[in-house]
Amino acid sequence: MRTSTRRQSPAPADVITYRLNNKMMYVPPAESFDQAVTFARSAFEGDLTGIDKSRISFSLNVLANGKQSSVGISSAAWSKIMSHLAQYEIIDVHVQPVLKVSEAPPSYRSCGSTGDVEKEHHSSPHSSSHSSSPLHGLIPKRLFQRLGA
Q: Where are the annotated segments for Disordered (predicted)?
């Protein structure tokens, strides 16, 4: 009878660390992203009071290809990530900036009717009486002369 050896993952952490602005607090691992936000608000009341929950995000520092990087944790991945964290592992808490909505762009004058364009074309000193094309007035005179030569 053959038995397979299965690598067991370490027991889930019962305490992790949240870090915000170089301050750290031990917290229990949250079961959901929303609960993580609640724990962060409780741990850092002075810094997170009045901050909309949509502006709070989390990340882990990982070592990849010999380089340390910060990797964000999405709400969809939260429970999976929590199941793999080591005891006292540090999760960085971030406050995303407020998106400022600028004023609407300036309004522009609407284009006049084609009759206005034709009036300008016929009153233009560069218009020719023998022009049969409505585009004639839009082509620079020198270019038109070269084409006619």
A: 105-136
Cα(first)–Cα(last) distance of the chain, in Å? 98
Q: What is the pLDDT along the chain (149 residues), one digit of tens a residue?
A: 555 455 555 667 889 999 999 999 999 999 999 999 999 999 999 999 899 999 999 999 998 889 999 999 999 999 999 999 998 999 999 999 987 777 777 777 776 655 555 555 555 555 444 555 555 555 555 555 555 55
Fold of 16-95: Ubiquitin-like (UB roll) (3.10.20)
From CA 136, how far away is CA 144, in angstroms rounded?
8
Q: pTM here?
A: 0.60
